[in-house]
Amino acid sequence: MAARLGITRTASRWLLVGIALDAALAVADAAVGSIAGTYLVTPLLLAIFVTPALTALGAAVSIVLAALSGVWHDDLGSAWLIRLVIVVVGGALAYYAALRRERRERAARRYETLAAVADVVEASPAAFVGIDETGYIRLFNPAAEQMFGYRAREVLGSELAELIVPERLRAAHRAGLFRLRASGESRILGRRVDLPALHADGSELPVALTITRLRGEGPAAYVGFIRDISGEVEAQRRQRVLARTGELLASSIDYEQTLREIARLGVPELADWCAVDVPTAAGAVATMARASADAGAVELGPLRSRYSERARRDHTTAGVIASGHVVFEVEVGEQELAAYARDDDQLELLRELRITSLMVVPLKARRRTVGALTLATTDSRRRFSARDLELAQELAERAGMAIDNARLYAERARTATTLMASLRPPPIPELPGWDTAALYRPAGRADEVGGDFYDVFLAGRGWMLVIGDVVGHGPPAAALTSLARYSIRTAATLTGSPHAALEHLNEELRREGRLALFSAACVLLCEDDGRAQATVAVAGHPRPILVRAGEARPIGQTATILGVDDDSEYPQETLELSRGDFLVLYTDGVTDAASDGERFGEDRLLDALSAAASSAEQLLDRIRQALSDFQGRAQRDDVAILIVERLAASGNGHGPALSVEEQASALPEAPAPRERGLSS
Amino acid sequence: MVNYHISDHDLDDRTRLISLGGELDLYTAPRFEDALRQALDAGKRRIVIDLSEATFIDSTTLAVIVAGSKRLSAAGGELALVCSHRAVMRVFEITGYDRLFSICASRDEAVRALADAPSG
Q1: I need a labelling partner for B118 at 20 to 30 A (CA). Which of A53, A296, A490, A515 fits?
Q2: Do A432 and A456 form a contact (C-beta atoms < 8 A)?
Q3: Cis peptide before A476, with omega less than 30 degrees from 0?
């Protein structure tokens, strides 16, 4: 645009020169009185306006014209013709000369801004590449030579796009440059753009590019300031991968889930394909998790079932797990694949993956190899570098810990679950002549054990019902529950007396080094000549409730909570039970159930129980209903309820007449559990 | 769920009053325990635990009272409880605390009970 304007301007200027020339010739003619003046003036004028070379040319033309005019000089018409020729030829010549001069000047000026910059950036440690408006390289400083692996003299005059822009980005680059040239506007001008650049050896390196337009005369030129950000990119990648590994480590509870997460960690940041293998109990190796950057990548079939009897045992992952050493293959060929594959099927699948490079690093924890992490590239352009290996090892180190933590957690959880199961109330045996119902609901998760418990067992002449509540929570409370349960069982079985059982437990608790508080209620159910009796003793516990003919009232006398006082007495009370009478034993979780600052309390419980019920289960349901009506949300305390209803007399008119030994052997054959959860 | 309060101040050189109000349970017990420990560490041998404004008391809090009482008597001191709320009194009855501790209707009564005590 600018160039065309310049030429127009030049042309109009030389048109004026032509007119001036013509006028000068007319004046010269008039002055000299002869057309001869023309021959003097023409070179003179040319000399003023045009270059020396053209002046000589003009003079030569004048002489020729003068010679020619000698023939026609008397002829007025000829004189005008000559003048016209001189003006036209002179003007044309001058125009041509000016055009050439301007081109030359432009050519000289074109890259003078770039040339000025070149001097400045010559010694710069940062890479600079200058391009002209058409995208051709006009400047390539030594730092750029080093970064891209080219010599400046090789690349000057080449197109930048061809040289250092990766092929997939080339079209976009050219379009951007075109937009820039057309509108002078650009989204990238003066702004940092991170993009991959091509090295002379064909590899790619991440660079940060900032393009500046050079101010100055002449056509536009740009300088790109280029920084190699491989370090930065690598640091970011490391940070991302390791941050995710950190998260994993913090949440590694589920063993198999952890293995799956680890496989996902490496993809796609570190590798295109990833697998986690662990040693099996049988001494082989099993692939437990895989991840692939490409959703359509070949799957290795169902995970553990892939392991076949015919599998080789000397494959790469087995070697890594056995030795704890790293396998690093930058270029994977058939040989490496064959070494890696466990069997022919797997080899076939691995071939389909088109693995290009491979790393197998051991997953270590506490000086033990707990597995192997395989990372592979399947992209034809991608190969693992030393940096990749370094990161993979760091990842593996943390992942190994995560795996081991998850394994340990699973082990502990199994132990805890087993212990807790042993602490949960046992199934209630069948009580001849009695109907029973029970509820056990710990405050925590379903598999946790609370401080509450109940127990029903044969003791002396009858059945002993025990309900208790240990003060405290968690493992210490659970241990205490265990102690309490077996102390009471032993004492009650031997003495057949509720108060003796409580006294015995009190002594046991007082012997504990620490403060161990326990509240309990014991009821012995006996049958004598078909008449049923209940003997009740209570220690620091809510008194059992007798429900008779739709009326509920607490029975027994309260005594001090167990574990506080050496000299506590536990008075017991005996009453007769008739058919249809209920006894309700419960823990304070029932009465302490809170709702909006209010507690369920004994009165509400008595209300709920004060109505006719046809079975122990129905009565239990009534308490459940009353509690959920009252509370309607998550409970905070443990709850245990045990209900017995007097049915008709049991066949022999006596309680169980078994010896202690027989009782002990009878216990494991107790009938199916009758305990039931509250809401589920 | 923060519907309780706890405060303490010294009645005299040897006596500290710890007032507890609202719902006393598993979650408030640690603070109560701290207050008792501080009183003992400060050399107080007479401690009045005022539960007049307590509306609920659970077994964990009961355990704290027993533990505090034991340590106090080991140091030659004594503890008195002030209680008037029916629900709290009910818990003391159930657990037999009413037979183990002096439970008084007012602070003044509790302070007198401690002053009459032979030890201290």
Answers
A1: A515
A2: no
A3: no
Number of structural domains found in chain B: 1
B115 touching chain A per CB within 8 A: no
Residues in chain B: 120
Q: Is A591 on the interface with B (CB under 8 A)?
A: no
Segments in A184-219 forming alpha helices (H): none
Distance from C-alpha of A488 to C-alpha of A481, rounded to nearest angstrom: 11
Domain assignment of residue B105, given as a range: 4-116
Q: What angle (nearest 5°) sits at the alpha carbon of residue A497, between those of residues A493 and A499?
A: 125
What is the rounded distance in angstroms from the CA atom of residue A590 to the CA atom of residue A601? 8
Q: Which pLDDT score is estimated for A672?
A: 42
Tokens of A308: 């076949």
- The arithmetic mean of pLDDT across residues A411-417, rounded, is 82
> Amino acid identity of A612?
A
All residues of chain A having their beta carbon less than 8 Å from the beta carbon of residue B88 are none
Contacts of A61 (CB under 8 A, 6+ apart): A42, A86, A89, A90
How much is the pTM?
Answer: 0.56
ipTM for the complex shown: 0.86
Determine the straight-line distance between the first and last CA of chain B, rounded to whole angstroms.
38
A557/B contact by beta carbon, under 8 A: no
Query: Which tokens in the block code for residue A343?
Result: 């069997």
* Type and span of the H or E element at A41: helix A37-49
Residue A9 tokens read as 């301007």
Q: Tell me if B90 and A602 make a contact (CB, 8 A cut-off).
A: yes
In which band, very low, low, confident or very high, does the pLDDT at A515 lie, cut at 50, 70 and 90? confident
Closest to A105 (Cα-Cα) out of A206, A21, A226, A3:
A3
Mutate: best of B94, B97, B100, B103, partner A, most A CBs <10 A:
B94
Q: Where are the alpha helices (DSSP H) in A198-252?
A: 230-250
Q: How far apart are CA B33 and CA A640, in angstroms?
A: 28
DSSP assignment, residue A429?
P
Residues in B touching A599 (Cβ below 8 Å): 56, 87
How many residues comprise chain A?
Answer: 680
Positive/negative CA dihedral, A84, A87, A88, A90: positive
Nearest residue on chain A to B27, alpha-carbon basis: A636
Long-range pairs of A409-417 with CB within 8 A, sequence gap ≥ 24 = A409/A252, A409/A253, A409/A255, A410/A253, A410/A254, A410/A255, A417/A447
What is the gyration radius of the CA atoms in chain B, in angstroms?
13
Dump pLDDT digits (tens) for A46-96: 555 555 555 566 666 666 665 665 544 555 555 666 666 766 777 777 777
Residue in B24, B28, B58, B59 to test binding to A, most A beta-carbons within 10 Å: B59
Helix (H) or strand (E) holding A415: helix A386-423
Give the span between the Cα atoms of A242 and A135, in whole angstroms.
41
Residue A90 burial (C-beta neighbours within 10 Å; 0-12, 13-18, 19+): buried
Plot region of A515 (φ>0 → left; ψ -120 to 50 → alpha; else → beta): beta
Q: What is the mean pLDDT of chain A?
A: 79
Nearest to A548 by CA among A498, A600, A493, A609: A609
SS3 annotation, A86-146: HHHHHHHHHHHHHHHHHHHHHHHHHCHHHHHHHHHHCCCCCEEEEEECCCEEEEECHHHHH
Pairing mode of beta strands A582-586, A545-548: antiparallel
Task: Determine the residue type at A442.
Answer: P
What phi-psi label fits residue A218: left (phi over 0), alpha (psi between -120 and 50 degrees) or beta?
left
Q: Which residue has the higher pLDDT, A535 or A164?
A: A535
Q: Do B95 and A592 touch (CB under 8 A)?
A: no
Q: What angle do CA A564, B57, A465 make, to 5 degrees?
A: 60
In the block, which residue shows the tokens 């001494």? A283
